[in-house]
Design brief:
There is one protein chain. This protein has a single domain, classed as Roll (Hypothetical upf0131 protein ytfp). It is about 30% helix and about 35% strand. The chain is built from 4 helices and 7 strands, in the order E-E-E-H-E-E-H-E-E-H-H. The strands form 2 sheets. It has a 5-stranded mixed beta barrel with strand order 1-3-2-4-5. Helix 2 packs across helix 4 (about 160-180) and helix 3 packs across helix 4 (about 160-180).
């Protein structure tokens, strides 16, 4: 257990843990906020029409809820190779203190897309972000499905994320407006 690795997921890693782990626990980190500021050219969009996925930004007074996974030492190289490929579109590994729901504090690895990466889209008004999420599609499916999965995963965790909730509301309204009466 001494060389086991903790990983903190704040986006799709909350609900899509496609790697081997020995423990899974709701968790949160302090000093970070989740934002749909990272472009997705390889999963939820294309190079010509990137989708938007989450990254973390510095936010000293905020908490970000997610899921922590303990990966057994023998599996660490395989899991990291898999995640490095999965998160290849501009994400870097960073370590941060993570508080598990049972009160333990561990050092965990997180993947963050820094603002200087090639796929960073940055801040925009909520309507613009929502429109991009609503219309983008990629090899892993519709960008709005990523938002919906994240929104529901956060609800299951009992977490409040105003940014995600507001975008979910806007994208939901856009979908309702596309439906014709009687359809």
């Amino acid at each position: 257990m001494n060389n086991d690795l903790w990983l903190f997921g704040y986006g799709s890693l909350i609900w899509k843990a496609d790697f081997e782990f020995v423990e899974r626990c709701p968790a949160n980190i302090t000093g970070w906020a989740r934002r749909f500021w990272q472009g997705s050219h390889d999963h939820r969009g294309t190079p010509d029409a990137p989708g938007r996925v989450v990254t973390l930004i510095d936010a000293p007074d905020e908490h970000c809820a997610g899921m922590a996974y303990r990966i057994a030492a023998p599996q660490v190289p395989t899991v990291l190779a898999h995640l490095d490929y999965r998160e290849k579109n501009g994400y870097d590994r960073v370590e941060t203190n993570t508080t598990l729901s049972d009160g333990r504090t561990v050092s965990a690895l997180i993947y963050i897309a820094n603002p200087d990466n090639f796929a960073h889209l940055g801040d925009a008004d909520e309507q613009t972000i929502a429109q991009q999420i609503h219309t983008s599609n990629g090899p892993s499916g519709a960008n709005r499905d990523y938002l919906i999965e994240l929104h529901h995963a956060l609800i299951e965790l009992g977490a409040v994320d105003n940014h995600v909730a507001r975008l979910f509301e806007l994208v939901d309204l856009m979908g309702q407006n596309q439906q014709l009466p009687g359809s």
